[in-house]
Design a protein that fits this description.
- A hairpin with a 2-residue loop joins β5 and β6.
- The radius of gyration is 30 Å and the shape is elongated.
- It has one domain.
- With 169 residues, it is an alpha+beta fold.
- 24% of the residues lie in helices and 32% in strands.
- The termini are far apart.
- The longest helix is centred in the N-terminal third of the chain and has 19 residues, at 2-20.
- The strands form 4 sheets. The chain has a 4-stranded antiparallel beta sheet with strand order 3-2-7-8, with no helix packed on it.
- The chain is built from 4 helices and 11 strands.
- This is PEGA domain-containing protein.
- It comes from Pustulibacterium marinum.
């Protein structure tokens, strides 16, 4: 009788252990990733917006942040990072996530619970493509406005306009 209870306890403990491993990517990966953002020159104002255009962060470079990998169930996050600095062109680049290779590990370890529930909910199925963003800003170029009056040579004037010209000797 005691050995039967001991076997049941071992089975229950083993099942409890297995259920803690149900999300393979959740074990190895994370739902938020650190990223270092800088610019050349430093001190640029940055804004991070999500796929809905909602601002998620604003500050100046350099900065270290943690950003969420998921924007919902089975949806990877998509962010746009905008750099602005007086005298420099505004630059916007994407911050990209891709499928984490550990998510495929659910086929061996996590099963359907890991594939369909744990990793999609925690965002651990996605990984940040880079942990450092260093953007070189381009100086603004001065624009020269075209003059309001343009001068044409006689040979460049359309024929139907030539009848309206006044000849000066």
């Amino acid at each position: 009788m005691k050995s039967s209870i001991a076997k049941q306890m071992i089975i229950i403990a083993w099942m409890g252990f297995v259920f803690t491993l149900l999300g393979c990517a959740s074990i190895v990966s994370k739902g938020k990733y650190p990223v270092h953002i800088d610019s050349s020159p430093s001190g640029a104002h940055i804004t991070i917006t999500d796929q809905d255009g909602v601002m998620q962060y604003t500050g100046t470079t350099p900065v270290n942040l943690k950003i969420k990998a998921s924007s919902g169930y089975f949806k990877k996050a998509n962010y746009m990072l905008t750099f602005e600095m007086d005298g420099y062109e505004t630059k916007t680049i994407p911050i990209k996530f891709s499928l984490d290779g550990w998510y495929v590990g659910n086929l061996l370890f996590g099963g359907l619970v890991g594939i369909l529930i744990v990793d999609p909910i925690t965002g651990a199925m996605w990984k940040l493509n880079t942990d450092q963003i260093n953007e070189k800003l381009t100086k603004e170029t001065e624009t020269v406005e075209k003059p309001a009056i343009e001068v044409y040579g006689y040979q460049h004037i359309p024929e139907d306009w030539k009848d309206n010209l006044i000849r000066i000797n």
